[in-house]
Amino acid sequence: MAFKDYSLLDPRIPLWEGWPHVLQTQQFSRPTLDILFAYTDRLLEARARGEDDPLRALGAGKFLVTLFYQPSSRTVCSFLRAARELGMDVLDVRDPARLSSEVKGESFEDAIRTYAGGVEHGFRLADILVVRHPSADAVFQAARASPVPVINAGNGPDQHPTQSLVDLYAIRKELGRLDHLHLVVVGDLKNGRTARSLAYLLGKNYQGIRFTFVSHAELRMREDVRAFLDRHGVPYRECHAYGDGAESVLRSADGVYLLRTQTEWGPERLRALAPELRHLRFTQERRRELPPGAKVFHPLPINCADPDLSEVDSELAAAARTLTAGQRDDQLAWFRQMDYGIPVRIALLAAHLRDFWNRS
Ligand code: NCD
Predict the structure, then answer these.
(1) Residue 194: CB within 6 Å of ligand 1?
(2) How far is ligand 1, taken at its centre, from the CA of residue 185, in Å?
(3) What percentage of the chain's residues is helix, strand, coil (to nearest 5)?
(4) Ligand 1 centre from 260 Cα, in Å?
(5) How far is ligand 1, taken at its centre, from the CA of residue 22, in Å?
(6) What is the tally of helices (H) and strands (E) in the chain?
(7) By alpha-carbon position, which residue is closest to atom 11 of ligand 1?
(8) SS3 state of residue 113
(9) Measured from the CB, is residue 75 less than 6 Å from ligand 1?
(10) Tell me, what's the pLDDT at 8?
(11) At 246, phi and psi to the nearest 5?
(12) In whole angstroms, what is the distance from residue 338 CA to residue 17 CA?
C-alpha cells in the first residue's frame, strides 16, 4: 500500500480527544493507536526495503520547537530527528529557566506566546511545540496559551504520553500483541511518569490486561491511576517484593517494565530508601524466573552511576547494550524499545502535519 493511500492521511478521520494537543494518554483511543502503529509499521517496512520515505516533504517549511526545562537524551533527540525525517526545520531550546529571558522574570505564558507566536504577521516561529517541564500543570498552561499544537514530553511526575506510544509499539513488536497481557511494573511508580502514562493507555484501550505493581510502599502507584483502572475493570495487584512470600510474580509475566528511582523528586528521602529498594533490583536470578518469551522493558535511562539505587544489575545493563550480530539479548528489550522512538514520533508528527494545518 502506498503511503498516500493510507488512511492516516485522510483528514476526515478524527484522531484523538483534545486535538491537536497531546497532553495525556487518556486522549488516545484504540482506532487512533491502530492508525499510528500501522503507519509506523509502514515506515519501518519502507526503510527495510531501502525506499525513500514518501512523506519526506510533508513538513517542508514547518518548524518544530523543543522546549525542555528538564534534562533529556532520547526524547528530545528522537523528536528532532523525526521532524527532520519529515522535512521540518527544528529549534532545540534547552534549559530555558537558566538560558532564556525567563531568567529576567518573563512568565511561562509569555515564553509560550513567544515560541508559538509570530502569527500576527504570518511569520510563525513554531508550528509544533514539544514541551518538557518539571511542573505537572505547565503543559496544560502551554496548550491554553499556544495557537499551535503542544506535545507533552514529560510534565513533572505526571505523564509522558509519547514515551507510552513508543512503549506500546515496542510491546506489540516484541510480544506480538497488546491484548491479554500480564505486565509486571517495577520501581518508583509514584513518580515514574512513563509507567503512569502506560497504565492509563493500556488500561483504557486493551482487553485482558492485568498489572502487578511492584514497589516500595512509599512509591506505590498513585490513587488517580488505581481509580482509573478500577473504573475500567482492569485488575491489578500491588506488591512490595517480587515474591511477597508466595511464588514470584515474574513466573506469570508476559512483560516486565522497569523504572528508575526518580531522585529528582526528593533526593534525600529517596536516597534513604536505597537499602529497602535493593531487593527490587532486576538481576540475573530474577530474569531466570521469567517464562519463555517474556520480555523486559525500560523507558531508560538506567541509573548506572549510583550502585545503591541502580534498578538493574550492571551485568544485565551491559548485556542489553550488546550490538554484536548473533549476540543480541532477546529478553532484554529496552534498546530495541528505544529505537522505535524515531519512527513512532514520525507517525505522530505526520498526523499533526496532515490534519491540523490542512484545516487551519
Ligand atoms: C523518562 C522520563 O524522562 O520520564 N525518560 C524518557 O523520556 N525515556 C524516564 C526516566 O527519566 O526515568
Answers:
(1) yes
(2) 15
(3) 45, 15, 40
(4) 8
(5) 17
(6) 14, 9
(7) 301
(8) helix
(9) yes
(10) 54
(11) -105, -160
(12) 26
Question: What's the CA gap between 157 and 147, in Å, rounded?
Answer: 26
- CA–CA gap between residue 67 and residue 153 (Å, rounded): 9
Interval between CA 3 and ligand 1 midpoint (Å): 31
pLDDT averaged over consecutive 10-residue blocks of the chain (360 residues)?
48 78 96 91 92 78 95 97 95 92 92 83 88 97 92 98 98 98 98 98 98 97 98 97 84 97 90 91 95 98 91 93 81 96 95 63
**Residue 227 and residue 233: Cα distance in Å, rounded?**
10
pLDDT digits (tens, 9 = 90+) for 39-64: 899 899 999 999 876 677 889 889 99
Please answer whether residues 335 and 320 qualify as being in contact, where contact means their C-beta atoms are separated by less than 8 angstroms: yes
Q: Which atom of ligand 1 is nearest to the CA of 75?
A: 7
Ligand 1 neighbour 74 (Cβ under 6 A): yes
Look up residue 138 and give its three cell numbers.
505547565
Exposure string over 203-219, b if 16+ CB within 10 A, otherwise e: bbbbeebbbbbbbbeeb
- Measure 300 CA to ligand 1 centroid, in angstroms: 6
What are the pLDDT digits (tens) for 204-262? 999 999 999 999 999 999 999 999 999 999 999 999 999 866 789 999 999 999 999 99
CA 290 to chain centre: 24
Return the amino acid letter for 43.
Answer: L
For every residue of 224-259, DSSP letters joined together read HHHHHHHHTT--EEEESSSSTTSS-GGGG-SEEEE-
Ligand 1 pocket: which of 186, 193, 310 to mutate (most atoms within 8 A of CB): 193
Task: Report the atom number in ligand 1 closest to the C-alpha of 160.
Answer: 4
What is the grid cell recorded at 157? 511526575
Give the mutation target among 78, 164, 300 for probing the ligand 1 site: most ligand atoms within 8 A of CB. Answer: 300
Q: Which three cell numbers stand for residue 175?
A: 510480544
Nearest CA to ligand 1 atom 7: 75
How many angstroms does the Cα of residue 135 sit away from the middle of ligand 1? 15
Longest dimension (CA), the chain: 67
Q: How far apart are CA 128 and CA 61, in angstroms?
A: 12
Q: What is the pTM of this model?
A: 0.94
